[in-house]
Amino acid sequence: MIKISILGATGYTGQELVRILRQHPEAELVGLGTQQFAGRPFSGVYPHFYGLVDMICEAVDDPRLVERADLVFLAMPHGLSAALVGDILKMGKKVIDLGADFRLSSPAVYRKWYKTEGPAPDLLKQAVYGLPEINREKIKTARVIANPGCYPTTAILGLAPLLKNKLIDTGSIVIDSKSGVSGAGRGLSVNSLFSEVDGDFKAYGLPAHRHAPEIEQELSLIAGEKITVSFTPHLLPMTRGMLSTIYVQPLTPVNLSMVQELYREFYRDEPFIRVYPQGQYPHTKWVQGTNYCDIGLNWDERTGRITVLSVIDNLVKGASGQAVQNMNIMHGLEETLGNNKIAVYP
Amino acid sequence: MIKISILGATGYTGQELVRILRQHPEAELVGLGTQQFAGRPFSGVYPHFYGLVDMICEAVDDPRLVERADLVFLAMPHGLSAALVGDILKMGKKVIDLGADFRLSSPAVYRKWYKTEGPAPDLLKQAVYGLPEINREKIKTARVIANPGCYPTTAILGLAPLLKNKLIDTGSIVIDSKSGVSGAGRGLSVNSLFSEVDGDFKAYGLPAHRHAPEIEQELSLIAGEKITVSFTPHLLPMTRGMLSTIYVQPLTPVNLSMVQELYREFYRDEPFIRVYPQGQYPHTKWVQGTNYCDIGLNWDERTGRITVLSVIDNLVKGASGQAVQNMNIMHGLEETLGNNKIAVYP
Amino acid sequence: MIKISILGATGYTGQELVRILRQHPEAELVGLGTQQFAGRPFSGVYPHFYGLVDMICEAVDDPRLVERADLVFLAMPHGLSAALVGDILKMGKKVIDLGADFRLSSPAVYRKWYKTEGPAPDLLKQAVYGLPEINREKIKTARVIANPGCYPTTAILGLAPLLKNKLIDTGSIVIDSKSGVSGAGRGLSVNSLFSEVDGDFKAYGLPAHRHAPEIEQELSLIAGEKITVSFTPHLLPMTRGMLSTIYVQPLTPVNLSMVQELYREFYRDEPFIRVYPQGQYPHTKWVQGTNYCDIGLNWDERTGRITVLSVIDNLVKGASGQAVQNMNIMHGLEETLGNNKIAVYP
Amino acid sequence: MIKISILGATGYTGQELVRILRQHPEAELVGLGTQQFAGRPFSGVYPHFYGLVDMICEAVDDPRLVERADLVFLAMPHGLSAALVGDILKMGKKVIDLGADFRLSSPAVYRKWYKTEGPAPDLLKQAVYGLPEINREKIKTARVIANPGCYPTTAILGLAPLLKNKLIDTGSIVIDSKSGVSGAGRGLSVNSLFSEVDGDFKAYGLPAHRHAPEIEQELSLIAGEKITVSFTPHLLPMTRGMLSTIYVQPLTPVNLSMVQELYREFYRDEPFIRVYPQGQYPHTKWVQGTNYCDIGLNWDERTGRITVLSVIDNLVKGASGQAVQNMNIMHGLEETLGNNKIAVYP
Q1: What is the mean pLDDT of residues B179-201?
Q2: What's the pTM?
Q3: Which of A316, C122, C256, D249 is the most exposed place for a label (fewest CB within 10 A)?
Q4: Tell me: the pLDDT tens digits for D175-218?
Q5: Would you call D157 helix, strand, or coil by DSSP?
Q6: Phi, psi of D311 (to 5 degrees)
Q7: What is the pLDDT of residues C277-288, one digit of tens each?
Q8: Is A264 at the interface with chain B, CB within 8 A?
Q9: Is the pLDDT of residue C341 over 90?
Q10: pLDDT per residue over A134-160, tens digit each?
Q11: Per-residue model confidence (pLDDT) at position C110
Q12: Hey, is the C-beta of D264 within 8 angstroms of any chain C C-beta?
């Protein structure tokens, strides 16, 4: 059994980790660290765990949380991970960081977008970007995982087959993304109130969202050239789920069968990617509570553009489920362990 | 492995059975019968099962569905089960009926509320009302289970401790129930359209709903006297979840601690009942996707009335999860097998 | 033109007042006072008013807001109105208070439920409980209106015809109420977050809610005897709308036609009450954005109980629309002026 | 008073016409034609009109509906308007068609996308595309109005300033649109059920939606050259509201201030267009129930692309409100008459 502590266990991604790990056959929760609720039973903060996870929350900075664990998950606001990760590594433990601090490999880019200093360069260098479908081999031996953002997960998985094969005009990429509200976390904000969100739809994060440089960094690595994208996030009046609609111009004429075949082949052995048959397009609800990224493809003969539709549950494949997938890879376990296979529907 | 066919697999309770049984370690799905979709892969009707349950649906009246199975689940509109159950029993197979046809032990009462003839009396007599917390012993040896309705499940579990102990004025019972829309099934009706339900709340089924006689029959059995209740169902603008608010007048003065203790004791060994601590009241979302019935208790010193708040997921403990719980009991398996333990939240 | 200032204009009831009064042919907004947004244009706080109400918000305690006005609406948190009302009256202006401070005629009861001192007795005595269907004559000459709470509005209007005619056992009243989330206001609370409320239903305010004494006070006045009720509020996963399901036991046998006739007669000349025909029951969405209270009636021959279903928009007839109705009465205007007649549906 | 009949009064756009026209000071409803509900009071089909519009529905093909009227609104499924419009014109009455039959000026294009024969060419020629901001002069004297589709309304109003001024690469247009469910009407379909739509988001209408040729026809007219666009519609889990996110590449370098100024100037005198200040982006809920089209602008210095965010209520500016705006123009009335100015919020 892998002994696990979660720092930041009472945010939405934290409690989602608890859900998945509590049902994981090879994991044991040994510590739940929080900033607000130390001393209270976890099921007092999230009563759906009543009778299931009644262990007492501890102060997030209590070193015993790390001592007890083999692996630490960080689900903290950005800016707090750098110091924590350093300490955890010194104590000889591995860490999966669900925050943003280790995702950007350039300290300058991090500073520009997050308005704060990021991790020290030597620490940063140890981090592996934890997108298994792209970086599986590196993840196996990593000590620090930078777990990808939710938007980047849809964008990268949606574009990788095309970019890897150099099939598209890299200047033509438009990523129009829509997310459920849980992505904003449990923090208090007028923008997250039910009465404001219910029955409403809007773009946000304009002129440019922090996930844009993360998307561009990883797409550039895949393509082998510098890529800039148009990216607009929107907020859906629903709790979970994310869909990115991605528009690209191919460099040479294609047709839909070719594109379908390319994606099928690229993701053939991936347990968490489902490429839909021609003419079928993914719904966010079909992956709810699961670690799938579902992909549908379209090609418009009139404009020549390819449209990729890429869908995840933002709290699972976009956060905690992917983190557990990374944990499984790091520990040589079957990659799908712990994650639900079937969405609760409708 | 128990071989299972589901007749009526493509309604909401049918597909929920598929979800639970597909993940059940001792069950194997051998047939999915439908009225509308024979010849299509199940994942074509419900694409969230894509890659998980791609087996082909068959015509619901194909006898091979029964032949192949050890146990048959019926998830059919009322009025269709009577003939099917007779045939299934003749073929030596057991059956769990999620419909209403075998729930009312009086053919006259059935006729009055359902406007059609019910099962033949000798067939009806074999049916056991499948509420494990009340009828577990009978379920163990039953060949036909009448799986309870969703409203009755909340009402009976909410009132059993008080009635069993003869603590309340049986003429004082008011049951005010609220249900998510999935309880109405996948059939087409203006009343189930998103634009009609979204942002709306209403009572329905007035002057009296078909679940009233089922509630009264079972409460009367528990109390040992004829009970009549006021029961008003309402429709919530949400998909899953049911809450019943139950008001009763005690026969003698009580206080909240006494009532709490009574419920705790009554349900002490029940794996799917959670009696909440004093001052905590259940939310429907805390049991979503699970087989729990969560109960909160209140007592108003000014009126003397007890209020019981009883919560389930209408498609799980109110239908398919309870059906699988019954299956486990009938087959001597651990009662919780197959059902999720933790709600996907938020 | 009546010159109007609103103190507390940027809460939900405040901005609802702005909406109604901006379209009122005899009203002119001369001041918008807020605690948080002084100096900002109102349409900066609520951009749906962009180009329509761009006037600058002022500090809520600026006396010029009152000086400029003929009538002041208070939409403030409880505990703040007492001092304000005294000052406004001294300046010779009338006031309609949408908060709770002047609703309870007993200072002791106020203290018990609100844990703070209420208005001075001589001030309190001047307040008229502003439910036009019950107190129209007194409202005409009032200088201070205590605008009713939303729950009490549904309860009192639902029960008045029965109580006035002494038809029911006053000890038998059960009021099961359900409200949209906007009733909780725009304040920040985990309980009001979209991700918590969406798809969820729960009771709250137990063991007893502050609206209970207000309901009981007014029902007692109507009945001419002391009345105690069972009252349970619930939170609906929707923004606007409130439905109360009220159960009562008649003193003598009745039938539905008698009850229907009683209500039709009682509310015959009321412009904002619609008693539905037999067999039809109100939906919250049918009154959305309007000042109607819609009422449906049921009688269960098996238990003898009458069920009253009473529906309003909590922000209109439950708050701001009723306040404007009161304003119209106080100023001798047509009572319906300013309020929308037709819900925007679906 | 303009005498008005509505053919197809009981669909969502039909009942929205009833709402607006019932409150219009210069309009009188003289006939409500329906395919399903002839003989029933309108308020029996839509009870929110109870006491407000109780007139009896008539058969949609009863010629007396037209005889009585000065102006006929058609809110019928496509394919049915052609014959009706011919008859109405012969009877000397004007007509506003909210359906698709008269929107496409090429019979061949109509046939290709609607798989049926459209109106006769001489009839078709008389129709004016009823987008007031573009075609106001022609609308004044029109006898047949083809009321625009909802998606085209957002796309054309969002792009007209740029195209009219030849500022963009016309091959670069990507229109990513999201609509509330009411756009699908009140017809019965599994895809419109609450349980399917709630908490879900998806693209639909792929590979290409019928509104694409309508968008392209009108954009081409404005630009003076043939335009082809990428257009993907999506379905939002909400009832009303539509947002289009439009991406274009300018032909020469621009900046945001220039673009802002261009839109401000272009729409300066338009009563129903609100161009938002720099840095503010529209929400669908801010225009709910109103006839506004709200526009927000963004420019990404990294890609050089302009992003236009264009928002309407699909049933108002996207259908019935725009139809009444056209009526006002045709009859020399003030253009804003009848339409609500302020959204009911939240």
Answers
A1: 97
A2: 0.97
A3: C122
A4: 999 999 999 999 999 999 999 999 999 999 887 788 999 999 99
A5: helix
A6: -130, 135
A7: 999 999 999 999
A8: no
A9: no
A10: 999 999 999 999 999 999 999 999 999
A11: 93
A12: no
Decide: D61 and D54 in contact? Cβ < 8 Å. no
**What amino acid occupies position A250?**
P
Distance of CA D126 to the CA centre of its chain: 19
Q: What is the predicted pLDDT for the residue at A291?
A: 98
Residue D209: per-residue pLDDT: 85
* Min Cα–Cα distance to chain A from C145, Å: 28
Give C-chain residues touching B282 at CB under 8 angstroms: 202
Confidence band for B340, pLDDT divided at 50, 70 and 90: confident
The amino acid sitting at A31 is G
Chain B residues touching A342 at Cβ < 8 A:
19, 22-23, 48-49, 52
Q: Where do we find the tokens 């105690």?
A: C228
What angle, 0 to 180 degrees and rounded to 10, lies between the N-to-C axes of helices D132-140 and D150-164?
Answer: 100
Q: What are the CA-CA distances from residue C333 to residues C326, C329, C330, D23 (Å)? A: 10, 6, 8, 20
In degrees, to the nearest 5, what angle opens at C-alpha C270 toward C-alphas C269 and C276?
100
What strands lie across the sheet with D144-146, from one edge to the other? D58-59, D27-34, D2-7, D71-74, D94-97, D144-146, D127-129
pLDDT of residue D340: 83
**Cβ contacts of D188 on chain B, cutoff 8 Å:** 188-190, 193
Task: Given the residues A124, A150, A227, A287, select the one marked as catalytic.
Answer: A150
pLDDT band at D171 (very low <50, low <70, confident <90, very high): very high
- Provide long-range contacts, Cβ within 8 A and 24+ apart, for A219-226: A219/A155, A219/A156, A219/A159, A219/A163, A219/A173, A222/A134, A222/A156, A222/A159, A222/A160, A222/A163, A222/A164, A223/A163, A223/A164, A223/A166, A223/A170, A225/A170
| Alpha-carbon span C144 to C84, nearest angstrom | 11
Inter-chain touch D48–C345, beta carbons under 8 Å: yes
What span, in angstroms and rounded, lies between the C-alpha atoms of D303 and B99? Answer: 59
Who among A12, A194, A196 is closest to C198 (CB)? A194
Tell me which chain D residues have a C-beta less than 8 angstroms from the C-beta of C343.
48
CB contact under 8 A, B345 and A22: no
Q: Does D247 touch chain A (CB under 8 A)?
A: yes
Please report the domains of chain B, with CATH numbers, ordered by start residue: 2-147+317-330 (3.40.50.720), 151-314 (3.30.360.10)
Distance CA A24, CA A252 (A): 46
Instruction: Return the active site residues of D.
Output: 150
Q: Is the peptide bond before C233 cis (omega within 30 degrees of 0)?
A: no
Distance of CA D87 to CAs A257, D64, D74, D118, Å?
48, 12, 12, 15
Check CB contact of C192 with chain A, cutoff 8 Å: yes
Name D119's Cβ contacts closer than 8 Å, sequence gap at least 6.
Answer: D81, D82, D85, D86, D101, D102, D107, D127
Cα angle D161, D163, D167 (rounded to 5 degrees) comes to 95
